[in-house]
Write a structure and sequence with these properties.
442 residues, Rossmann fold, pyruvate-formate lyase- activating enzyme, OB fold (Dihydrolipoamide Acetyltransferase, E2P), 3 domains, six-stranded parallel beta sheet, 14 helices, 21 strands, binds 5'-deoxyadenosine, binds iron/sulfur cluster, rSAM, Methylthiotransferase_N_sf, iron-sulfur
Length: 442
């Protein structure tokens, strides 16, 4: 038998890319590759890229530059670019970095083995199609390897919303939902391999409308209730959602489904109606706040998380203040905030841009308020008993680290628990980035 080849994958960007990288590794497993965690001994290097902001794409090009020496020392080394930069720039990548052998978009990665075979014949290989065949279909015969306690599962992909700043509708394509049966099958398989918590992924996951076994389309809430029945699956999360797709049944599930965790990532982007309109968000600050009220009525202890863009074209100081006001009202437990970054081909890229220093200054002010609320919410956990799913040993001997239902990292000293075990933990201390607790029951 010939020696297995080594594949090094570096993943950028969102959780869906993490999921895609796992699937790519599996697909390449069928072509005789095993994963390695260093590029130095690899036979193939694959960068799974992100195009959401400018810096993300630039990072890919500089990373490619760093592999030049490796490629010169080992001409047989294959270098591939996958993901959203691959989709957006295609052939341009090979022009800018001639040492790239392979370019594959996020909708065609099931064709990686064929593309790799082509590169072995000395040819360049490119596939950035949106094929009609289902990439998930070809990835069902995966090895039954043991998994950690948490996993991602893509249920929906693509976006039809066309926010004026965003490349996702162009790189990931139109919204597509996977059928319920396939998702349940994949969830059962993950549980058999040790997974206890599944995060359902989609660019607009709450717009999920996959075909149910009864022949009609199911909502995300209905899918969650179906997954609730999977024995051994203890926790369900989903990300990322659009406010307009928060349906009544999903809000209700947050109050009624014990396996659905009390955490919700619900990006608003801005608190100014004028900017929201310019962003083509199709909701207002007020409608978002009313929605949050309804979600909190269903699940009062829910921790909310959001995304914000500062310095969107035409954002005035007053518009920015409106965003701060919204943050003060919602009080997020977590948030991701970004300076607006022009993306070629999106409507907002054509508009007058704000100076960089204005964006930077607003970002700092916004982050200070986010951090303030985050701190209070984290500190408020002290004295409470939360459930923790243990994921790994801590840095100290005997210490174990896991995540609470609210997604806080929690560490426990002298914890007599294994990886993948759930326990009730009383929180005794709030540190800089994590909580400390002691187990009260298992
Ligand atoms: N500039 C800055 N941030 C962006 N995002 C998406 N596109 C851009 C852009 N052009 C942010 C949004 C989105 C998150 C995934 O990335 O906040 O919710
Ligand atoms: Fe991008 Fe999300 Fe808007 Fe879709 S809903 S265009 S993925 S920001």
């Amino acid at each position: 038998m010939s020696k297995a080849k080594r594949l090094y994958i570096k993943t950028y960007g969102c959780q869906m890319n993490v999921y895609d990288s796992e699937r790519m590794a599996e697909a390449m497993g069928g072509a005789g590759y095993v994963e390695t965690d260093t590029p130095d001994d690899a036979d193939m290097i694959l960068l799974n890229t992100c195009h959401i902001r400018e810096k993300a794409a630039e990072k890919v090009y500089s990373e490619l530059g760093r592999f030049k020496g490796l490629k010169e020392a080992k001409p047989d080394l294959k270098i591939g670019v996958a993901g959203c930069v691959a989709q957006a720039e295609g052939q341009e990548i090979m022009r800018r970095q001639p040492m790239v052998d392979l370019v594959v978009g996020p909708q065609s990665y099931h064709r990686l083995p064929e593309l790799e075979a082509k590169t072995q014949e000395g040819a360049k290989a490119l596939d950035t199609e949106f094929p009609v065949d289902d990439k998930f279909d070809t990835l069902r015969h995966r090895p039954k390897a043991k998994r950690g306690p948490t996993a991602f599962l893509t249920v929906q992909e693509g976006c039809d919303k066309f926010c004026a700043f965003c490349v996702v509708p162009y790189t990931r394509g139109a919204e597509v939902s996977r059928p319920v049966g396939r998702i349940v099958e994949e969830a059962q398989d993950l549980v058999e391999r040790g997974v206890r918590e599944i995060t359902l992924l989609g660019q607009n996951v709450n717009a999920y409308h996959g075909a149910g076994p009864d022949g009609v389309d199911w909502s995300l809430a209905k899918l969650i209730w179906e997954l609730d029945k999977v024995d051994g699956l203890e926790r369900i999360r989903f990300t990322t959602s659009h406010p307009n797709d928060m349906t009544d049944d999903l809000i209700e599930a947050h109050g009624a489904c014990a396996k659905l965790m009390p955490y919700l990532h619900l990006p608003v982007q801005s608190g100014s109606d004028r900017i929201l309109k310019r962003m083509n968000r199709s909701h207002t600050a007020e409608s978002y706040l009313r929605l949050i009220e309804r979600i909190r009525a269903a699940r009062p202890d829910i921790v909310l998380s959001g995304d914000f863009i500062v310095g969107f074209p035409e954002e005035s100081e007053q518009d920015f203040q409106d965003t701060i006001d919204l943050i003060e009202e919602v009080k997020y437990g977590y948030a991701y905030s970004f300076k607006y970054s022009t993306r070629p081909g999106t409507p907002a890229a054509e508009r007058d841009q704000l100076p960089e220093d204005v964006k930077t200054e607003r970002l700092h002010r916004l982050q200070a308020r986010i951090t303030h609320h985050q701190r209070i919410i984290q500190d408020d956990m002290v004295g409470r008993t939360v459930s923790v799913l243990f994921e790994k040993p801590g840095r100290l001997p005997g210490q174990m680290v896991g995540k609470s239902d609210y997604l806080h990292a929690v560490h426990v000293a002298d914890a007599d628990v294994g990886i993948g075990q759930l326990a009730q933990v009383e929180i005794i201390e709030s540190g800089s980035n994590s909580l400390a607790g002691r187990i009260v029951s298992k």
